Amino acid sequence: MSEVRADWFYLWLLTAIYLTLAVLAARRRISHDAAHGA
Amino acid sequence: MNGAQARLALTVLSPAEQLMEPLYNPTGGYASYVVPAAFVLIIQQTLLMGAATLTALGFERSTGVRRAAPGPAGVFGRGLAHLTMYAAALTLFFIVLPRVYGFSTLGRVSDLALFAVPFLLATSFMGQAAGSLFIHRETTVLLFIATTLPQFYQVGVSWPLEMLPPALDQLRRIFPSASAIAHRADGGRE
Asked: ipTM strictly over 0.85?
């Protein structure tokens, strides 16, 4: 039970990490494109 | 020797007739534990490539694809859209096909849904992050295709996890499928 619960919480942790990364990467890409006139 | 004598000889050799009935692996093959793990990988890899390509397309003005808002709400909204789109694929891969192929269906649908939500959201966000990171959208597809087979060997169905080097064991956890397949291997029984 505890291992399954740990896997479940770990998946939510990954979700939060990748959500943050996706937001940061999108902002970085927008500023990069703006700087290069894309 | 005719057929009757052959049967008589067999009866003398073994008076008790044996009926072989496999209890835990009724199909007698490896498909019942390899294929469900492969299903999880298929779902993850197709979603990663699709989310990354769509995100990268949004940055290319000539394509006409709308760029997602860069804030958390925009990224989360796109993740929810992917979740609803993949609900049908999940139903097919984890409810319909295991019954068609005669695989183990020990896990409850509610347990499956509990894992499916963070699994699909994490996969979608990972794909969106990768789609924003690379200038050329094809790069993410090549990258994710190249990781498919190494991932398959590191999820614990074709190679024991205990034999993995510690560094690889940690590295494989960056993909959501590692935790999702561990749960599928348990069958959701606990």
From this structure: yes
B132–A38: do the CB atoms touch at under 8 Å?
Answer: no
User: In 3D, which of A23, A3, A5, A36 has the Cα closest to residue B76?
Assistant: A23
- B16 located within any domain: no
The pair of structure tokens assigned to B96 is: 């319909």
What is the number of domains present in chain B?
A: 1
Say if A21 is an interface residue toward chain B (CB within 8 Å): yes
Span B25-65, pLDDT tens digits = 666 777 777 888 899 999 999 999 999 999 988 887 766 66
Query: Is B7 part of any domain?
Result: no
Range of the structural domain that residue B43 is part of: 31-64+71-185
Q: Is B159 part of any domain?
A: yes
What is the nearest CA distance from A28 to chain B, expressed in angstroms?
Answer: 8
